[in-house]
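Box S1 | Example of a co-folding query
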Amino acid sequence: MPEKELREKLEAVLDSYQYQREGLLPALKVVQDETGHLDPTCICFLSKRLRIPESTIYGTGTFYSLHTTEKLGRYTVRVCNSIVCHSQSGKELLDYIEKRLSVKPGETTADGLFSLEEAACLGACDRSPVIMVNETTYYRVTPEYFEEIITNLQPESEIADNGGECR
Amino acid sequence: MTPTKISITINGSLYDVSPEMTVLEAARSVGINIPTLCHYKGVHEDGRCRICVVEIKGQRVLQASCVYPVANGMEITTDSDEIRNLRKTILELMLGGHPSDCLNCEKSSGCVLQDLAYEYGARIGEFNQIRKQVPVSDPNPLIIRDMNKCIQCGLCVAVCEDGVLDVNFRGVRTAMTPAFNRCLEETPCTFCGMCISVCPTGALSEKMAVGAGRAHQLKRTLTTCVYCGCGCTIELQTRDDRLVKITSSPENPENGNFTCIKGRFGYDFVHHKERLQTPLIKNDNGTFRVAGWDEALDLIADRLAGIKSQHGPDALMAFSSARITNEENYTFQKFFRAVIGTNNIDHCARLCHAPTISGLAKTLGSASMTNPIADIEHSRTLLVIGSNTTEQHPFVASKMKKAVARGANLIVCDPRQIPLTQYATLWIRHRPGSDAALLCGMMNLIISNDWIDHDFIRNNTEGFDRICQSVQPYTLQKTSLITGVSPDLIERAARLYALEKPSGLYYAMGITQHTTGTDNVYAVSNLCLMTGNIGKPGAGLNPLRGQNNVQGSCDMGALPNVYPGYHKVIDLTAMKKFAAAWGVDSLSTKPGLTLTESFDAMLDGRIRALWAVGENPMMSDPDVNHVESALKKLDFMVVQDLFLTETAKLAHVVLPSASFVEKDGTFTSTERRVQRVRAGISPVGSSRTDWQIVADLAGRMGYQGMGWENSLQIMDEIRSLIPFYHGITYQRIEKRGICWPCPSLDHPGTPLLHLDGKFTGGKGQFMPVEFNEPAELPSEEYPLTLTSGRILAHWHTGTMTRRSRGIAALNPLGFVEINTEDAELLDISQGELVRVISRRGSVDVPARIGEMTPPKVIFMTFHFHEHNVNVLTNDVRDPVSQIPEFKVCAARVEKISV
Amino acid sequence: MKTFLIKGIDAINPLEIESYIENASGYQAVEKVLKQIRPDELIAEIEAAGLRGRGGAGFPTHIKWRSAAGSDADQRYIICNADEGEPGTFKDRFLLEHNPHLIIEGMLISGYALSATVGYIYIRGEFTEAVELIKKAIDAAYRRGFLGTDILGSGFDFDLKIALGRGAYICGEETALINSIEGKRGEARCKPPFPATAGLFGKPTVVDNVETICNIPFIIRNGSKWFSSIGIPGSHGTKLFAISGCVEKPGVYEAEMGVRLSDLTDMAGGIRKGSRLSCILCGGASGGWLKPDSLDIKMDFESLKKVGSSLGSGAVSFFDDNCDLLELVEKNISFFADESCGNCTPCREGTAQLQRYISRIIDGENSRDILDKLKRIADTMLKASRCGLGQAAPVSILSAMRVFPELFDKANGRN
Ligand SMILES: Cc1cc2nc3c(=O)[nH]c(=O)nc-3n(C[C@H](O)[C@H](O)[C@H](O)COP(=O)(O)O)c2cc1C
Ligand code: SF4
Ligand code: FES
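Box S1 (continued) | Returned holo structure for flavin mononucleotide
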């Protein structure tokens, strides 16, 4: 069973979809956001509440790239890796970030603070290169700007509060 | 209006086809083959593999013919150089990740991928190896999962009914695996093995058959599964007179690909080292010695004749078996009636559906399922009461699950959280033994809300007034109080069943195995009649008959009060007919003893000899300590079986019989379908089929009427004596069984009984019912209610399934289910060995703690001799049908102090 | 040149419904429709305007509408496809972030045309800012009575819901999108049945691109004649172009259908100073390559198809000679390999194989064999894949082989 708070959150989401399958992806978003991955106890819980086999929930969950089977760090840095960003200094930026955090895409720093992911086109090719850190998007990112971004990272809760904010 | 036929062109020729067809179906219907890999009609129609692509004029791209509907004027090309090249490339893409070990692959020569690769000249390794090879490591004993050979067709996922597998990830990482890539044993897998049967490659295969033979080396024999009344058709795969594996037989119209774990994997008992190979005769010191058939049969003939002449024919008793064929049951009862001269013959139907026989014979005129299994597809509501369908009648449950998926309502009434409750619209968790009250309460509601079927009651039934009165006391409040079910739930169930018609009612031992068994059967029958839910597709009153041939054994007259075809033994005309047919002057007109009554008769000396075929009362009957003392009093006892069972050990002579894979004949399934049983191998050791043994003995005792050469001749005799079997010849059931009644050779059989409310016995009869408590209620000393039953993987007393390696490995031990609450009170932990005690005995058994049973209720099975529930059960019986109350007794659980 | 979709868009505050109503005649079209036009007349109007879908395929909008409106059903759905995921495309995001109420108004009118009482906007989960804006805009529209029951006293009910993508390009494909809303894997479905007959929850459904939806209120306000006078025959109206890469001012530009690529380039400030244009990718990752000397080309569905490229969703990406074209080709195919839903063999296996072969070429392998195999796989994907993703994935490779054959010379063993 997930912790009480998370359980209640999930119940609320499922309830708003009358416990129909339609509520699965919104619920999985909560699971991913709160636990950092497709947490087995949460999937078991959702399976019981929605009356869908765990295998189906897992299969649906793993289809989508915003869900992970490995636990993500506190901050997930997604670097757009599609042609435009890539050719507009995105490649160099990715190299920089890999070195800076000492991880490869798909990995998490040893302290569990940062996960690095390659993202498909983030839809802002006019302001490349683009990265996302958790829910916030940053444009025209240079190594210097990246340094600034990570030094200014606040505790998770505050980040979520001013989510939406962008440059 | 859609036209009945449209015209299309395939490969330049014009054809008329049905507009409902896909391109694939249309092509095949005119004899043009298109290859497929991922397609399975009705199960998986998803167009994944793309091997079936065809060209349709006017379309930019090719289309998967398996999912593309035909349209008038369509011009289709199914074969061209271009198409062949595409198919070849698709195959080579599939093979891009494929290991090249066809040399050692189990599927080789039975592999669809291999055949297509051959046909299209596709090669392994043409393209890059783009997948990391993963180890083949699932440790389960039955199924090999080699994901390196998976081509992502999706069939295993589509066919899995337990929600074990699904498609995970995407792109080239796509994999058909359990959640979190768990091992099968950590999933809800029931090991039905259907996934193996549909896998077109070597990705899934049978572990126990590794190295035992390739497809082309195996001989295939179609037969009927021996495990339960569902009557699934299966295929025996044999090599060098050995049974190598069992597979489903997809083309058969009944179960198709379906089998459960027992049907597919419960076969290796056949060649088990403990199989009886020769007759055994007991020495004076209690040990057995090997004997020849002549010696053993002469001894039996001698002793039976002796006891008969000394104590009269009624001192002999026969236990026939619902496991053996119709032909064998017929032979055995004929022997006792015509040669010995007694009606003392009964079989284990006594322990399962005796109340159905006595009850439904009164109310409907015949005691069997009124509707065929396939009818579940037509039900809008299903009411399942006292049946753990998923575990006891897996195929029926499979149909029910499909019905739910299509939108049918499912009401499950069961004290235990049986697997079917997961699919239920309503789950009614009534107190064990309160079934009649629940049903009466529902009826009261239905009557007072006027949800009854007036026309049906008026035209087709009698006695409705009586019933109205008798259910009146069962107000919602009172019913709720007795059953422990909320009034709201009872009302919703009544409403669904009565109004969302057609409603099919399904019941089994949870209704019958009570001292009130017959009353319970009356109650379900009343409910069914007052709502007019009978005689129509999708409706019906359906007792799920347990064993593979329990319907047939009853039909054949392996009962103390009736001859074959249910002619009463007290009826002189019937007696004369059978006496003439069997070439004797007269037959006894005195009803014989029932199986349950016979133990008392053994104890008091009325019964002196017993011949038991394929029955193991030392485990299957209530209060086995009582059974044991009875059997030990016998002067002479013969047991005919596959193994030296607990009962056989007490016998004076033990005879080895052939198993179902070694004999020909017929079984009659729960839906009254008479189906063929065929021998795939010759009898193991010197074992013989049961009818041959009996016929041989009859000859030795001077009876001439059993000179048959094969089972076909017995069937012809049966057909001449049972009118409702008359039209059922082996020839007619070669491909598909026929449901009786089938009175003539041109009659198609009768899957649906009482059509339009025309009952066999005239009008449907309402029978008033009172609720009575079970005989033994919890007390201070025995505060728990013990209920008993079975589990999916094992069959009855475990003689066969516990000798099937895979099944036994997965389910090695028995258990007692205890509710978490009670376990906490008793300070018992999961798996702990505890002592369960009733007034009749005590058993040590591991605890399985959870929510399966409600508080104050415990559950055990009779599969395990080490801890058999029947040491504890109560042998009080229903006065009408003589069935014992297996389902309820009082017990307590104790912690075993160390 | 006539433009209207994003003209004056800066004057609209996306957070204020009033701003849309006052500065852009907002919600007037819906009022007109609800009071004066029957659904069938509305569909006829769209037909007369000649509106073609802006999501990439350019399918005539009225055909889908009419088919869905005509199917017998107790419920119908209209879905706005805001899953914009085609690399190089960002025009829908622009609309979402700058004028959410235009989308809502367009959805209302479309819903009315189909007699659909429920609409969905399916937005990419990564567009967090747009999601917030749309949510607020929907709330405001409910409060103002533009959404909900009995809208503007017309008796028409319409609910608008949001569904979020969870990171899957394929969910831009309409049937995959529908599966995703239903809470399933976003695999493309086999067609037929088309969504217009059996879509979301098995009901008739129309999926329209954001930009398509945004055109609707303008057509209603100004009439079909006005609309069809813009653009060129066969491709009416304007198009939003997402211009990126080595230009001075990358961004979203609106121009009439049939505009010359050179004019677009000028709108974006021309090629960036100091850069030498080496190639152009038109239509995003599924599109085709153009040589620097093809700036003369006309930008509309048919003209681009003729030269082996495509208009697609209007993405135009410029690359200078600092880029390694083969590397770009590899990026593109690896995008498809990552995004293939994995359902059908040609795409699931083919994208991965193509990626491997392109990397092998980059690594300097040379054998004729590789190019033959590339072509064989590409051909199989084009013809036998289930959906547009697999059918489009090899396009940019084949295009590169045609437009820049010299790149493959080495692999061909000719160098
Ligand atoms: C792989 C794939 C991805 C697609 N992605 C999008 C998308 O992001 N947005 C979109 O509007 N249409 C997308 N489409 C097109 C849609 O399937 C559909 O044609 C479109 O939403 C219809 O809207 P329209 O008629 O307004 O263009 C995609 C198609 C394919 C095959
Ligand atoms: S073409 Fe690709 S994305 Fe489309 S169905 Fe096939 S595997 Fe899925
Ligand atoms: S058989 Fe048609 S796609 Fe697989």
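The pocket of FE2/S2 (inorganic) cluster (ligand 3) is lined by residues B 36-39, 47-52, 64, 66 (CB under 6 Å). The interface with chain B takes residues 40, 43, 51-60, 62-63, 69 of chain A (CB under 8 Å).
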